[in-house]
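subagent[fold] <- orchestrator: predict structure for attached chain, return tokens only, no commentary.
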Amino acid sequence: MADAARFALYGRLLSPEGGATLKDLHGELGVSKKAFRRDLEAMERVGLPVLCEAGCRGETTWRLATPEGLPPLTFAWDEATALHLSRPLLGSLHSTFVWEALGRALAKVRAHLGEPALAYLNGLSGGFLATAPGAADLADRGPALDAVMLGREERRVTAILYRSGSTGEADRFAVEPLGLVWHRGRLYLHAHSRKHGEQRTFRVDRIEEAETTPERFEPPADFDLRIAHAGSFGVWHSDGPARMVRVQFAPSAAPYVAAGRYVAAGRWHDSQTVDVLPDGSFTLRVELGTFEKVGV
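subagent[fold] -> orchestrator:
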């Protein structure tokens, strides 16, 4: 069965307003008629009915129909307000498979609220700023992102052209896509790299080209994306055993970290514990499998 990402891609093409032909789907997704039929059955099993209509030129068009028996999707005023005010926080989804549908949904929210309410809310939003310093620009990475997601779903080896951040050189090699990680304004591909012989993370904004191949791969039976990154700060993967890391801050350092509140109040890792000692010093303990970004 196609996963949520594949369904979202189909949903973009099989919109109730227009629909798509098999030629459209093949050009956008590279799916065969047989594969499309298989996914149609999967969609119907999960309650996404697709209507088949004959076009004036003899081409068959498919479009999504509203599932019968479901009430219209509506929002209370406070729910619509919350979605509208959350727009600055959703910009990180640009160029992902949900971006276009998200834009349509927010347009409906704006229409629901009406101009007077929008003017009032926009005045409120002027007092709220969401910043993302150093956030990656994925505006032209849509095709590459679609390819690696398709490679993950169909378990296909994917050839990528990746530009190294350290050397600036571009290199083409094969990866086995296992998942995507969003971390501090950047999207990363977690994959097994056949060039390096291990699992690594790759910044999506540095993947200049990506193309799925006919070759299949089998992901590790026990692979879990969350567990793969549990032993690190951020996106650095390690297969090594977890080790306790203790960072102790002397009392003299307290004024530079807001008397420990910056460390004690922040959530740096799921395994962390913070101990504040009587002399004013404090200790941060975490269990890590890699020391990347720890500075040891």
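orchestrator: received. Logging for downstream: The mean pLDDT is 76. The longest strand covers residues 170-183.
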